[in-house]
Structure formats: structure tokens, C-alpha cells
Amino acid sequence: MPRFSRPPSSGSPASFGVFLIFAGTAYYALTKRRLIIEHRKGSPGIVVKPERPYITVFGPVYPMTIHHAFTIAGTILALIHFATCTDYSTLAGKAGLGMAIVLILMNISGFYGRYVHVKLEMAARKKQSERLKRFTVLLRKWKLFHVALAGSFLILLGIHLAVVGD
Ligand code: HEM
Ligand code: HEM
Questions:
Q1: Domain span at residue 101?
Q2: Which long-range contacts (CB under 8 A, 24 or more apart) does 31-34 make?
Q3: What are the beta bridge partners of residue 135?
Q4: Rg of the chain over CA atoms, in angstroms?
Q5: In-domain check, residue 1
Q6: How do the pLDDT tens digits run along the chain, 166 residues long?
Q7: Ligand nearest to the CA of 116
Q8: Do 101 and 74 belong to one domain?
Q9: Is residue 97 within 6 Å of ligand 1 at its C-beta?
Q10: Is the Cβ atom of 136 under 6 angstroms away from ligand 2?
Q11: pTM
């Protein structure tokens, strides 16, 4: 049995998709904490300075919008790879199936998180302290869930990449 019985490029859309997911998440996480890189609204440009946070990126959209766009585009590419696979019974296939489920859950959870964010901001603007407290607790719980899903995606991806092609 030849080692590559299917087109060897079949993992490429997924590789690019996973790259987009990582890039969209890393950019948000770094700019949110102003670690290495900060993001400011404005016409596109990059300024590099010798002091922290070293890099200032100017762009027309918020880092959260980049997070949404990159993770959704990355998910679509990963799901194209998933849909073109034929064997879901192997360990690689089961890890792939797990990742597909986790990715769909992550995207649904992302939209829910965005909804909670909006509610929280509205409560803060209207100075509704009870609602503000409720949505703060909800957001904290949601974030734990969203990040836990991201962690399980990483574990499944590690398994998938370790056994794929066996
Ligand atoms: C860096 C990212 C990835 C790379 C490089 C990659 C690569 C590969 C390769 C080379 C195969 C074997 C050939 C094939 O069956 O088409 C494969 C199989 C598979 N992949 Fe991926 N993959 C990646 C991510 C993903 C993701 C995110 C999912 C799920 C959304 C997934 C689901 C699957 C499934 C279900 C299979 C079939 C398993 C089998 O044939 O034994 N992969 N992958
Ligand atoms: C594969 C898909 C995704 C992955 C792996 C992912 C991963 C993450 C991670 C790790 C964080 C925490 C960042 C940090 O605080 O340092 C985060 C935050 C967040 N994500 Fe996602 N995400 C995905 C998709 C989405 C989508 C599709 C949306 C919205 C439509 C979304 C909305 C959010 C929001 C609102 C936060 C901010 C939480 C906060 O800072 O309060 N995510 N995401």
C-alpha cells in the first residue's frame, strides 16, 4: 500500500486555516494586553519603537473584528479539509472529527460571547449595577468555556498531526 493513497495536498487548506485561527487569536491576545504589539484605530501603518510595546499597528478595524474574521475563515478552510476526508475511523480521523465539533462549538460560543460583551457594555453605559454584575459573572464563565475549547482544539490538533500519515 503506498504511503500517500490520497492527494498529498489534502492537508493544505487545513494548514492555512489553522494558521489563520492562530494568527487571529494571537493578534487579539497580544494587543489586548499590549504585549509586544498594540493596535490603534487609524489609516493602515506600522510603527516600530525600541521601547515597549515595540510595535504599534494602525488599522481601520478593531483586533476583535480581526479575531472574528480570521477564526471564521480558518474554520471554513479546516472544514473543507474535513469534508474531503474519507476515513473517520482512524485515530487521525477521530481527532479530526473532534476538532470539527470543537471548531463549530467555538464559533457558536464566540457569537454568544460577543452578545454578552454588548449587553455588559450597555449595562455599564446605563449604570445598571445589578445587570452589570450579572453580565460580568456570565462573561467570566463564558470566557473559561471559550478558552477551554481552544485548549482542547490544541490537544486534538497535536494528536492529529502526530498520527496523520501513519
Ligand atoms: C495543520 C492542520 C492540518 C494538517 C496539516 C492536516 C493534514 C492531514 C493529512 C495529511 C491527512 C491525511 C490525508 C487525508 O486523509 O486527507 C489528514 C486527514 C484528516 N484530517 Fe487533517 N490536517 C489538519 C487539520 C485538520 C483539522 C482542523 C481537521 C478537522 C476539522 C482535520 C480532519 C481530518 C480528518 C477527519 C482526516 C481523515 C483521517 C484519516 O484519513 O485517517 N484535519 N489531515
Ligand atoms: C477557532 C475559533 C476560535 C478560537 C480558537 C478562539 C480562541 C479564543 C481565545 C484563546 C480567546 C482568549 C484571548 C485572550 O483573552 O487572550 C478568545 C477570546 C474571544 N473570542 Fe474567540 N476564538 C475563536 C472563535 C471566535 C469567534 C468566531 C468569535 C465571535 C464571533 C469569538 C469571540 C471571542 C470574544 C468576544 C473573545 C473575548 C473575550 C474577552 O476578552 O473578554 N471567538 N478566543
A1: 88-166
A2: 31/57, 31/63, 32/63
A3: none
A4: 19
A5: no
A6: 444 445 544 678 899 999 999 999 999 999 999 989 999 999 999 999 999 999 999 999 999 999 999 999 999 999 999 999 989 999 999 999 999 999 999 999 999 999 999 999 999 999 999 999 999 999 999 999 999 999 999 999 999 999 996 6
A7: 2
A8: no
A9: yes
A10: no
A11: 0.91
